[in-house]
Amino acid sequence: MSESKTVFKDYSNGLDILASEIGPKFVEYRKHWDNAKNIESSGPLQIDFELLDNCNQRCIMCPRGYLSDSDEYSLNTNARLSVDDMKSAIDQAAEGNLYCVGFSIGEPLLTKKELYAGISHAAQKGVVDIILTTNALLLDEECSNRLLESELTRLHVSIDATTPQTYSQIRGKGFERVIKNLNYFLKRREELNKRLPIVRVSFVEQEQNRHEKADFINQWVNKVESVSVQTMLLSPENKDIAAYDIEAHEKKFDCDYPWKMVEIVANGDLYPCCTFCGLNHLKLGNIKDTTILEAWEGKKMQAVKDGLADESLRVCSVCQRF
Ligand SMILES: C[S@@+](CC[C@H](N)C(=O)[O-])C[C@H]1O[C@@H](n2cnc3c(N)ncnc32)[C@H](O)[C@@H]1O
Ligand code: SF4
Ligand code: SF4
Fold first, then answer.
1. pLDDT band at 256 (very low <50, low <70, confident <90, very high)
2. Global pTM?
3. Using CA positions, which residue lies closest to atom 3 of ligand 2?
4. Is 273 in the pocket of ligand 3 (CB under 6 A)?
5. For the chain, percent of residues with pLDDT exceeding 90
6. Mean pLDDT of the chain
7. 134 alpha carbon to ligand 2 midpoint, in Å?
8. Distance CA 163, CA 160 (A)
9. What pairs with residue 269 in β-bridges?
10. In the structure, how many helices (H) and strands (E) does the chain have?
11. Is residue 257 pLDDT above 70, yes or no?
């Protein structure tokens, strides 16, 4: 849990591919991204959307899997973000410095129609980097072909295992289907002679899969652009943020996400990052009551930035992301 994030095949190759395929605006975006705290921005560089508050898996390390419905931070409410609200948020942020849109919360392939609409709208508005993070259970051949025709720039597939046994312990059923789906996607991308979207596979390291880490890296390192081994955030045993022993953990506040992004979840709530550790403490407002740019410049966002600066934000200490 305290081990820092390790990326075995880092993104630099993938970022080079993106820069050469997308061109100067991508390079400008990454410079801004890497210096976000020092560059004045008239809005988020990235918006992450949750289209549906639910998932077709219940992974043991994910709050969707381990939190009960009565929990303060409960998920899986089936709230849906409307396509109009998603488009409106993109339109508002596109007036500022929006470069990237992510579909990385819940399971985006449960809402394919809305996802395809979001990808195409973002591209029309000049967004240069469009990311999908998925468990790939629903990445069937039709979906792969649709995504390969789209403006999607990055496909992130979460796998966490090299065997059906370990996969079922962590994620549930479907290991073979996920591998088949991803292999088809990679084969079609090659047949179409396309470099985008680049593909990243990920492995959230935990007790159940640690013995497969080396195999996971070896298995994927020559097939995809990035293999990411990730630290588990807030384990199921430590899910109660209020009771969490912050003092026992090193404070790490080297986080610049509130200078880079906003997250919009399915009920319209806005957050300054995509962590799931006690998000309720970080809520900036709701899209029904505020515009994206108002939230970006508002008092709540400033309070999060101040809290990061003076290390007073309990939730950030728990997050341990940075
Ligand atoms: C919350 S999921 C949403 C997208 C999609 N359902 C998926 O699994 O890829 C986004 C990413 O968070 C990762 N994740 C889930 N629980 C985590 C935890 N406790 N710590 C770190 N990453 C986690 C998943 O493995 C996945 O790569
Ligand atoms: S598939 Fe993704 S969102 Fe669903 S439970 Fe697993 S990590 Fe969480
Ligand atoms: S919870 Fe705090 S430290 Fe974690 S990503 Fe969000 S703002 Fe950054």
1. very high
2. 0.94
3. 106
4. yes
5. 75
6. 90
7. 8
8. 9
9. 286
10. 12, 10
11. yes
